[in-house]
UniProtKB/TrEMBL annotation:
EC numbers: 3.6.3.29
Organism in which the protein naturally occurs: Photobacterium rosenbergii
Entry superkingdom: Bacteria
Cited Gene3D superfamilies: 2.40.50.100, P-loop containing nucleotide triphosphate hydrolases
Keyword flag Protein transport: no
CC per GO annotation: membrane
Protein name: Molybdenum ABC transporter ATP-binding protein
Alphabetized SMART domains for the sequence: AAA
Domain Mop: 290-357
Domain ABC transporter: 1-229
C-alpha cells in the first residue's frame, strides 16, 4: 500500500491528509480548485515538503518527519506528468523520451512507444505536435524513467475536446497495462468514470471519502457533489453472453442478477463497469409483466433519504453485494409505503458501460 499521513500549512489551507492507496491501477484525486489536490502530489513527488507526517511507497519510506527522512525528488523514483507537457523544444521526440532513460533499454523503449502510439513521431520536434501528442510523449518520458509510481496532474486540462478524445484511449490502455500505481488528479467526473479504479475526494485539505470507485461514487458523501441528473451508481459486472437475435450483451452482477446493454466487443468473463443514473430507476413491489423495460432487478431497500426542501426521496438498494440508488418522488414513496428491508423490484430504463459510452433500454 501507499501510506500517506501528512500535514502542511498552505496560506489559508490547512492540509491534513490520511490516505491508503493501492499499489496498482489508477487512483483519481478529485475535488474543487484549491482543495489541495496538486499540493498533495507535489508532496508525494518531493517538490514540496510537508510540515510533518510520513509517506511510504510499499516498504520504501519517502518521508518521515520524526525519523528525519526526506528523500529528494530524484531519489523517489516517481514519474510526474504535468498539465502542460514541458518537452524540450530543441530535442526530437526520441531525444525527449531518452532524456528520461537512466540506461538505454531498446525493448522497453519500443514497448512504451507502441503503448502510446508515438513510434511515427520519433523524428519530429515538439513544435510540430498536437497537444495530445505532446502529452503522450510526456507520459512516455515519465514511464521510461522506470518509476515506482506515476503522478498525473490534470493531464487533459489544457487540451480542447478533440485532443482529449484523442488521448483518452491511450490513458485507458495505460491503466490496464502499466503495473505501477498511478495517482491522477482531476476535477472531471467523466475522466474518473473512464479511467479510475479507486478514488479519493478532497475538500479544503481533508479527505472526505476514499476507496474503490464503485463504493465512493455511490456513497452519501459523494452524492451532494453531483447534480440530480448526474447522480448514479457504478456496478462491476462480467460479460456473460451476446443475444443471438438482437445487438445486446448480457452482463452479470451476480449469479441471479443481470443487465442487458448494447452489444460489446468484450469476451465472456471480461469485467466491465456499468453506470445506472438514479433518475432512470423506478421501484415497484410487484414485478411488472408485459413491459418495454428489459432490465428489472430484485432488490432490498437499504436506506431511505429525504432530500431537504424537495419533493424527492433518494433510496439506496441492495442487489446482492452491490448498491443501487433510485431517485423517486415523495408521493411515490408514500404510496409504496417504503421501509428499510422491503423487497422491491428496480426497473432500470437506461444502462451505460462507462468505458464504451454505450446505453440501452
Amino acid at each position: 500500500m501507499i501510506e500517506i499521513d501528512v500535514r502542511q500549512k498552505l496560506g489559508d489551507l490547512d492540509m491534513d491528509i490520511q490516505l491508503q492507496l493501492p499499489m496498482q491501477g489508477i487512483t483519481a484525486i478529485f475535488g474543487r480548485s484549491g482543495a489541495g489536490k496538486t499540493s498533495l502530489i507535489n508532496v508525494l513527488s518531493g517538490l514540496a515538503t510537508p510540515n510533518s507526517g510520513a509517506i511510504s511507497l510499499g516498504q520504501h519510506v519517502l518521508y518521515n518527519s520524526q525519523a528525519g527522512i526526506n528523500l529528494p525528488p530524484e531519489k523517489r523514483r516517481i514519474g510526474y506528468v504535468f498539465q502542460d507537457a514541458r518537452l524540450f523544444p530543441h530535442y526530437t521526440v526520441a531525444g525527449n523520451l531518452r532524456y528520461g532513460c537512466k540506461t538505454e533499454n531498446v525493448e522497453q523503449f519500443q514497448s512504451v512507444t507502441q503503448l502510446l502510439g508515438i513510434e511515427h513521431l520519433l523524428k519530429r520536434y515538439p513544435a510540430s505536435l498536437s497537444g495530445g501528442e505532446k502529452q503522450r510523449v510526456a507520459i512516455g518520458r515519465a514511464l521510461l524513467s522506470n518509476p515506482s509510481m506515476l503522478l498525473m496532474d490534470e493531464p487533459l486540462a489544457s487540451l480542447d475536446l478533440p485532443r482529449k478524445q484523442e488521448l483518452m484511449p491511450y490513458l485507458e490502455r495505460l491503466a490496464k497495462e502499466v503495473k505501477i500505481p498511478i495517482v491522477y488528479v482531476t476535477h472531471s467526473l467523466d475522466e474518473i468514470l473512464r479511467l479510475a479504479d479507486h478514488m479519493a475526494m478532497i475538500h479544503q485539505g481533508k479527505v472526505v471519502v476514499s476507496g474503490h470507485i464503485n463504493s465512493v461514487w455511490g456513497s452519501p458523501e459523494m452524492r451532494p457533489w453531483l447534480p440530480a441528473k448526474e447522480q448514479s451508481s457504478l456496478l462491476s459486472a462480467r460479460v456473460n453472453h451476446h443475444h443471438p437475435h438482437y445487438a445486446l450483451t448480457q452482463v452479470m452482477l451476480n449469479h441471479d442478477a443481470y443487465l442487458w446493454v448494447n452489444r460489446l466487443q468484450s469476451v465472456r468473463g471480461e469485467w466491465v463497469r456499468v453506470r445506472v443514473h438514479s433518475n432512470d430507476v423506478s421501484l415497484t413491489k410487484v414485478r411488472s409483466e408485459q413491459t418495454s423495460i428489459r432490465n428489472i432487478l430484485s432488490a432490498k431497500v437499504d436506506k431511505i433519504h429525504p432530500v431537504d426542501e424537495q419533493e424527492r426521496i433518494e433510496v439506496r438498494l441492495r442487489v446482492g453485494e452491490a448498491q443501487l440508488w433510485a431517485n423517486i418522488t415523495k408521493w411515490a414513496a408514500d404510496e409504496l409505503d417504503l421501509s428499510v428491508g422491503d423487497k422491491v423490484f428496480a426497473q432500470i430504463k437506461g444502462v451505460s458501460v462507462t468505458q464504451e459510452d454505450l446505453a440501452t433500454m
